[in-house]
Amino acid sequence: MLEVNSLCSGYGSIPVLNNLSLSVSAGEFVGILGHNGMGKTTLLKTLIGTLPVTSGSISFLGQDITRSASHRRARTGMGYVPQGRGIFPGLTVRENLEFAAAAAGKKGVACVEDVIEEFPRLRAYLDRPGGALSGGEQQLLALARSLVQNPKIVLLDEPTEGIQPSIIEEIIDQLKILRQSRGLTIVLVEQNVDFIRALSDRVLLIQKGTISAQLATDQLTDAIAIGDFAGIDH
Fold it and tell me: How is domain 1-77+153-158+183-234 classified at the CATH fold level?
């Protein structure tokens, strides 16, 4: 589904990704684990198109999207939930979802109702400003908003950041349900080892802008297996 070959990217003259390669199959949940500053968020921003590729290539669903604009990537089935959620705090939950539907060229009412069926917690808050929700509820809204566009793959950046444990468990359960009901594919950037282990089929370790190793999720129980990543929450 997603093929990344020898990818280089960064911020202006500052390189971050360094000949990074990875592949993700349809229906797979792939975790990406690493310290801050190793290129995790840069990778997702480059995949979705908000950062330009300096060299290398990205292929999605058999099409070269290396130079495609981010809105074109979204319309071909690539969803993105950024670190910090990125919702519109002044808009209601309903308006956040309708905006996402309109951006995808879809009819808002039907799309919103469909996604609310999958996120029943949000139904009671449809007329509440997004900024009035708790951090965990905002994360659910951000995920729901990405799904309004009916993506084939979702790029999730640090979804547990600043969220209480009870909501983290709810997000895990919700993502497992979506995997079954939608056949969703996910690339998950995270530092919470328990969260990434609960969801991922395999985990890629990123160091200095490149993939340094691949681990089975059961290897994450062994501190030796993750080496320099022992400082990550677990």
Answer: Rossmann fold (3.40.50)
Q: Domain locations in the chain? A: 1-77+153-158+183-234
Query: In this predicted model, what pLDDT tens digit does every residue of 66-107 receive, in sequence order?
Result: 999 998 999 899 999 998 888 999 999 999 999 988 877 776
pTM (two decimals): 0.90
Q: How far apart are CA 29 and CA 32, in angstroms?
A: 10
